[in-house]
Design goal:
By secondary structure, this protein is of the alpha/beta class. It has a domain at 2-22 and 33-269: Alpha-Beta Horseshoe (pyruvate-formate lyase- activating enzyme). Helix content is 46%, strand content 19%. It contains 15 helices and 17 strands. The strands form four sheets. The chain has a nine-stranded mixed β-sheet. Strands 12-13-14 form a three-stranded antiparallel β-sheet, with no helix packed on it. A three-stranded antiparallel β-sheet has the order 15-17-16. Strand 9 and strand 10 form a beta hairpin. Helix 1 runs parallel beside helix 15 (387-418), helix 2 packs across helix 11 and helix 8 (199-212) packs parallel to helix 10. The longest helix has 32 residues, at 387-418. It is globular and about 55 Å long.
Length: 419
């Protein structure tokens, strides 16, 4: 456990420093010759009800506000087009993106008309797996549907306040069975290390997934923000115990790997396909919508978390940025090191060419540490994660996303204080 504690401590400390945003509201246009593959992330923050463990930017659904919001999303999308940005893929997250299916379809149609889109991934919840929604999503060209299931255990679903919204674990499994085969990839999002979750509960969830044979499974560790931790204590009856996380993760890999291959440290696929962690396949991405975070040209930026402010600014063709972080060359290099190896492998020669320098000279300490710890294998310029290394990367990505979630909490608190 000592090495895991050390990795957690260092990752938490570095993330705190990297996620110090400064006020700012400008992005420069890309040079015309730039051919970087970029993704467009679209955030839809509306949910019928709010889950206690979720740290994403989300609010309770109001139809009038949501329709005005989708209209603003389409306007913001065109603002990026006017600046010369081109996107080859779209990822729609939330919230619940399918909460107004006709608005979502209109938004995706505009994206395809505006940009050279080749892949579209959309998140949804089990209660939205209806024939009408599936037909609408297929018609607009969605390749990958990602369903937030979290667990099939009825007791856990009740504690997490999901049972009355989405049905029993058995009912959710039936809906997934009916959806399988309609898209290139059906992904199921699961969570492990809930406070009340036992190893037996995890094994049963895994057995159900294997019997369903879905295309892809993403198994996240629970990574609550400071605010969500307090909500979880009240609703789920306890705190996250990181000491059991490794045992759960090893059980997941043990049971899934005969049927699935790892796509990232916590995603398992039957074939090559888009994944939830688009940061692995796309070095740059624009974030549109309230609370979106983007990374373009070495700059991390955040949109306003105030939905009314977001709609008002975009209506005036003003980018809704509230903060930015301009990364140094070393920070960019270390970010690439983290993200590429989260995707299991990294070519140091490609990294050196991208940053016009000796990548190993900057990263030698990290490479030495993880190689000595048995996490990395180095063959020439290629670094690959071992199974042990994949868990270490789960720790670092867990801390990365907790840091982002804490930043979201800070932004939401500022909005609430303002109102």
């Amino acid at each position: 456990m000592l090495i895991e504690k050390f990795i957690t401590y260092v990752a938490r400390k570095k993330n705190f420093r990297y996620l110090q945003f400064s006020p700012g509201s400008t992005l420069s246009a890309l040079p015309a010759a730039d051919n970087t593959q970029r993704l467009l992330y679209v955030h839809v923050p509306f949910c019928e009800e709010l889950c206690p463990y979720c740290s994403f930017h989300r609010v309770v659904f109001q139809e009038g506000l949501a329709r005005a919001y989708f209209d603003a999303l389409r306007k913001e999308m065109l603002m990026y087009n006017r600046l010369g940005y081109a996107f080859s893929a779209v990822y729609v997250g939330g919230g619940t993106p399918t909460i107004l299916i006709e608005e979502l379809a209109q938004t995706l149609r505009l994206a395809k008309q505006t940009f050279p889109i080749r892949e579209i991934s959309v998140e949804t919840n089990p209660n939205h797996l209806t024939s009408q929604n599936i037909d609408e999503l297929k018609a607009v060209g969605v390749n990958r549907l990602s369903v937030g299931v979290q667990s099939f255990d009825d007791g856990l679903l009740q504690a997490a306040e999901r049972y009355h919204k989405y049905g029993s674990g058995g009912e959710i499994a039936e809906r997934l069975k009916l959806t399988q085969g309609h898209f290139d990839t059906l992904n199921v999002d699961m969570i492990f290390n809930f406070p009340s979750q036992t190893m037996a509960m995890l094994e049963k969830d895994l057995s159900i997934l294997l019997s369903l044979g879905v295309d892809q499974i993403t198994y996240y560790p629970l990574m609550p923000s400071a605010y969500a931790k307090e909500a979880m204590r009240k609703k789920l009856g306890g705190s996250v115990d990181f000491k059991r996380e490794k045992k759960f993760y090893m059980k997941i890999t043990e049971m899934l790997e005969p049927e699935y291959r790892p796509s990232t440290a916590w995603c398992f696929s039957k074939s090559s396909s888009m994944i939830d962690e688009y940061v692995v396949h796309f070095a740059e991405y624009a974030g549109i919508g309230s609370g979106s975070i983007g990374y373009l040209q070495g700059t991390v930026y955040a949109n306003t978390f105030d939905i009314g402010d977001y709609i008002e600014r975009v209506s005036r063709s003003v980018f809704p940025f509230v903060g930015r972080k301009d990364s140094s060359p070393k920070e960019r290099l270390r970010y690439e090191f983290l993200m590429r190896l989260f995707g299991l492998r990294l070519d140091l020669s490609q990294l050196a060419a991208k940053f016009r320098g000796n990548a190993y000279r900057c990263l030698w300490l990290e490479i030495l540490f993880f190689s000595t710890a048995g996490a990395l294998k180095k063959r020439g310029h290629l670094l690959t994660l071992t199974r042990k290394g994949r868990y270490y990367w789960v720790i670092m990505m867990r801390e990365f996303f907790i840091g982002v979630n804490n930043f979201r909490d800070y932004c939401r608190a500022a909005v609430n204080h303002k109102s």
